[in-house]
Amino acid sequence: MKQTHSCFPLLYFMMISLPLLVSSQTCQRSCGKLPLKYPFGSSSGCGDPRFQNYVNCNQDKLTLTTHTGCYPVTDIDYSNQVIYISDPSMSTCACTQPSKGFGLNWDAPFSFHDDDVFTLLDCSVDSSSPIYNGNNNNNSSAVPLCDKKGAPICSFLYSCRAISMLNLPISTCCVYTPVDLGPAFDMDLKKLQCSSYSGFYSFSGQEANPENWKYGIALKYKFNVYNDYPSSCVSCERSNGACGYAGDYKSFICSCPSGVNTTTDCYFETSFNNAPRLLQLPWQQITGNWLICIMAWILTWVSSSSCRLWF
């Protein structure tokens, strides 16, 4: 006796059981020697879209871009959510040079780490400098925000050969951890009437030896308002994928090593790789667009014809 069964439920079950495949795009897992994990990405569509305008990988070099310039990323501490950058124009114990300062964009998803220490060097001692404040109502005298004589940080910096070559007395204004520079901590040295600045985030256990301080800037970042690591991204990275986004709504995607992107994770690749050779599909050669076309054709065929199994 022949029985007729619609195969639509079977096909529907098979299709919803597979991850939705989207346009092919390969996201790198590293940039040079730095590993790339969420929220950072190698190119457009990779990582978190909020960070895309600020951190990018170009020719295996990861850089942070703000309105004051481009800065090499030297390290990323993913466990503590800290990114470390350097400023080639910054003065250090080894080199002193003019600089225009550093600032973050007001909408940048970063904030300065509490360990950051900035020093403004070779600043004007004129009372017209913004780093001076009047100490009384008639402004008969001005009190600088400079480091007091004998305070350690500026004294140690001026002991560096490069900074001492400025031929400036230690009493010349040197501001550390500057205040009243605005909510974005925008360091406009021209406006502040200073010729250079230095920044560091660690004394390396040698407070009296500025040659071994870790020069640069440490920036904190958050994943979102609640600072929660997206669960979909966790599953994606565990399956050797890279978190990214696509479409007008910047929806989540998982970029898999084969170049195929999914809306879930890359575990399906392991299943296909472990399948018998005759049943394996050439996933390395099929792009996400082709797969979408195939799936759309199947749906169209099922809806326009009677799919029957005879037995």
From TrEMBL:
Residues 1-24 form the signal peptide. It is a single-pass membrane protein. It is found in: Membrane. InterPro entries: WAK_assoc_C, WAK_GUB. One of its GO terms (cellular component) is membrane. One of its GO terms (molecular function) is protein serine/threonine kinase activity. Residues 27-87 form the Wall-associated receptor kinase galacturonan-binding domain. Keywords: Glycoprotein, Membrane, Signal, Transmembrane, Transmembrane helix. Its EC number is 2.7.11.1. The keyword Transport does not apply. Residues 206-258 form the Wall-associated receptor kinase C-terminal domain. It catalyses: L-seryl-[protein] + ATP = O-phospho-L-seryl-[protein] + ADP + H(+); L-threonyl-[protein] + ATP = O-phospho-L-threonyl-[protein] + ADP + H(+). This is non-specific serine/threonine protein kinase. It comes from Acer negundo (Box elder).
